[in-house]
Amino acid sequence: MKVCIVILFFSTFLCNGQNTLSFSENGTSPKASLQDVAWMEGHWKGEAFGGVTEEIWSPPLGGSMMFVFKLVSDGKVNFYEVGHIQQTGETLVLQLKHFHGNLKGWEEKDDTVDFKLVKVEGDRVFFDGFTFEKISDDEVNLYVVISQDNKTEKEVKFNYKRM
C-alpha cells in the first residue's frame, strides 16, 4: 500500500510539470559561467498573463548579460522588468527590477529581486524559483514561481520564439 502511495505521489509530481527548483537555505551555488546561458541572447516573443510578452537579451559582456522584458495587455504596457545575469565569482546570479508601464518602480530604490543559481543541467539552468530551458536555437521556455496573495505559489511557463 505504501509503495502505491509513493508511486502516485511521484507520478502526480512529475505530471504536474514541476520545472523549478528552490535554493537550499544552507546551500552553495555551483560553478557556472555566462557561457552556460549565452544561448539566451536575442529577441524573444511569446504570450502569458493574457497578453504578449517580449524579452531582449544582450550577449555576455563585462561579466553580465542584461535583459529587458515587457508585458502588453489590451494594447498597453502592463509592466517591465530590467535585469541581468551576472558572473559573481565562479557562479551566476539573476537580478531584476520591476516597473509599472509608466516606469515607476515596484521595488525600493536600491532593492533588486535576486535568484541564486541552483543547478546547470544540459539545456536547463535552474535559479531559485526561475528556470531557463533551451528547446532549440529558436525556442526557449522560462518557468517562474510567482506568489499569489502572498500565500500560494504557482509555476508559470513562458514559451518564447526567436524574433
From TrEMBL:
Residues 38-145 form the DUF6265 domain. InterPro entries: DUF6265 (IPR046232). This is DUF6265 domain-containing protein. It comes from Ulvibacterium marinum. It comes from the Bacteria. Pfam families: DUF6265.
